[in-house]
Structure formats: structure tokens, C-alpha cells
Amino acid sequence: MKKIILYFAFVATVMACGSKGEEKTVMEAEGLEFDSIVADTLVRLTSEQGAPEAKVHLSLMFATKGDNAKAVNDTLLHSGLVVPDYLSDIDAKGNIKAALDTFLIRFANDYKKNYAPLYQRDREHKASYNIVLNCKAKINSYKDGIINYQVETYNYAGGKDGLRWTLSHNIEAKTARILTLDDVLVPGYEKQLKEKVVEALCDKFDADDLKELGEKGVMYDIEPYPSNNFILKDGAIEFIYVDSEIAAHDKGEIRIEVKEIDDLWK
Is 171 helix (H, G, I), strand (E, B) or coil? Predict the structure, then answer.
């Protein structure tokens, strides 16, 4: 394990292929080889013993081999993988470790800048100033020529519960661009796809129609829509709605798969 930075109460480590004791993660998809890069941070808000802390653990996948590896990595770095989206502002010139290192430094600086003054005036609620950010990426290929890249995130920033969500990108391997629904479906798909979304939600929650879905707390007083967070598959699209997006928190993340849309593909 190589120690990259040590200053004040901030310790950051950036490692390739996982940390010591972890299984090396190498995956191949669409002619590209991906490997994991792990970055960890511990930031103490003040120098005093027992001060609040921010802990960050990033386990992300980046292309290490393949003709289009650099372009794919550039796309990933500027695609909002991690919140806060510091990575999009970083020009690391293809150096992934440097980009993650810069992310850790900025995260630490902003944590101290934004939270330390509040903590100084509110010592009675120390736990409210603890932060946890865990992000883990995985890749797959469910459709020829397309890499599916998902990041599962857990973020705790005080309060009773943390938040969990999944971000999904579908990357065209030959162009390194992130595909949208408009890229893969024919013009005018919106109405039929919306109907398919409602149908899939009704199947999942055992409802007869949109009205009954609303009575069950799903899409209540919301115009149905296909999420822009999705997974492209052969003959199907899996839509991901994050916690509390279209239903109450107790239903968690909602996933539905829309099939039988052959007439909608380009």
C-alpha cells in the first residue's frame, strides 16, 4: 500500500487492483480490460481527540487495456460517477490515480471548510458532523458493443439514515460516449415507453392501473416517466428509480424491466 498524502488529520491512499488482502478485480468487456482502483480517505474535522470524521471509500473500475481505453476513462471521469462531482472538474490527462488523489484532497478541504465553523458553534451534536461516502463500481455487458457501468453509493451525512443509490451508464465501446434513450430508440417512442413503464410497475406492485399504483404509494401524483438511469439489455431495458424517487423511502430502490419493445429500437 503506497501512502500518497499525509497532512494535518487527513490521510489518503490510492491503490490499484484493490488493497492488501482484497482479490484483484479485472474484467473484460467489449474488447477492453478493466481493473479496480481503490481510494480511501479519513479526515478529522479538528485536531482534538474524538473530533467528527469524514470517511471516504471509492472502489472504481477503469479501462487499462484496449484501443479506446483512454477515451472511455475520460468519459467516466466526466460523467458524475461520484457525488460531490469533483472528478468532472479535474484535468488529470489520463492519470486516474492523480484524478482520485485530487478528489480526496478537495473533499477533505471542503469538509473542513464547510463543517468546522458549524461544529465550533454546535459541540453538543458531534455525530451530526460525521460523514461516510462509499462508492463501488461494477461493469458488465448485456448488449453487444455496449458496456454497462454501475456505481453503488452509500452516503451518510448526519441524521437517522444514510442514502443509497445506484448510477448506471451505458457506454458505446467504439465511441466511448454515454448512450441516452434518444440514442437507441426511434423518434416518438415516449408515449409507448411510458405505457410500458406503467405496465411493468403494475406487475411489480400487483396493481391494476396507475390509480391503484398511486394508492400503493408508487408514482403518486407523479406523471409516469422512464428513468434516465437504466441498463440496456438484449431486447429489454431495465430502469432504476433511486430510493424515494417515485415511492416512499420504505420501498427503497425500484427496478423494473421493460420488454417487448422491438418496434422501438433503432
Answer: strand
Q: Determine the angle formed by the axes of helices 96-121 and 69-77, rounding to 10 degrees.
A: 10
Counting Cα atoms < 13 Å in the Cβ hemisphere of 208 gives: 2
Question: What are the backbone dihedrals phi and psi of residue 229, each rounded to the nearest 5 degrees, phi first?
Answer: -110, 100
According to DSSP, the residues that pair with 37 across neighbouring strands are 16, 60
Write down the H helix ranges in the chain. Answer: 69-77, 96-121, 181-184, 190-205, 210-215
Backbone torsions φ then ψ of 60, nearest 5 degrees: -115, 160
Q: What is the pLDDT of residue 259?
A: 95
User: Which DSSP string corresponds to 176-197?
Assistant: -PBP-HHHHB-TT-HHHHHHHH
Phi then psi for 132, rounded to 5 degrees? Answer: -130, 130
Q: What is the pLDDT of residues 219-236, one digit of tens each?
A: 999 999 999 999 999 999
CA dihedral of residues 67, 73, 75, 77 (deg, nearest 10): -170
pLDDT at 39 over 70: yes
Pairing status of strand 10-16 against strand 26-29: unpaired
pTM of the model: 0.88
Closest by alpha carbon to 174, among 65, 31, 73, 77?
Answer: 31
* Alpha-carbon distances, residue 165 vs 82, 113, 155 (angstroms): 11, 26, 9
CA angle 219–220–225, rounded 5-degree value: 30
What angle is formed at CA 69 by the lines to CA 68 and CA 71, rounded to 5 degrees?
70
CA 16/CA 39 separation, integer angstroms:
9
What strand order describes the sheet that includes 236-241? 230-233, 236-241, 254-258
Chain segment 63-83, per-residue pLDDT in tens = 999 989 999 999 999 999 999
